[in-house]
Amino acid sequence: MDKPEVGYRLAPAFWGQELATEAARATIQYGLDQLHLPYILGIVEPANTASVSILKKLGMMCSRTTTLYGSEVDIYRLP
User: Fold this and answer.
1) Which helix (H) or strand (E) holds 9?
2) For the chain, what is the mean pLDDT?
């Protein structure tokens, strides 16, 4: 997929500390304000409820479900 997308990955020792939320929020802000991107996507497997929660917390909304590299994923979008 060749689209503007926010992503994050943390070692389990750092889960639950809001680090992914803070990093994603800063990245999105930069993408919108400095790069003037018209939208940003977040791609997540529906079973990854922690990441789904982060994307929703950032104001992203699920726009569709698709298959990517053999896995079903939800595409979240921040207009």
Assistant:
1) none
2) 94
Q: What is the mean pLDDT of residues 52-75?
A: 96
- Strands 40-44 and 61-68 come out as unpaired
Rounded distance, CA 62 to CA 36, Å? 22
All residues at 6 or more sequence positions from 47 whose CB lies less than 8 Å from its CB, including other chains: none
Domain-wise residue ranges, the chain: 12-78
Q: CATH for 12-78?
A: 3.40.630.30
Per-residue confidence band for 6, with pLDDT thresholds at 50, 70 and 90: very high
Sign of CA dihedral 39, 74, 58, 11: negative
DSSP state of 46: T
- Its pTM stands at 0.88
> Hey, how many other C-beta atoms are within 10 angstroms of the C-beta on 41?
18
Distances (CA, A) of 7 to 21, 46: 10, 15
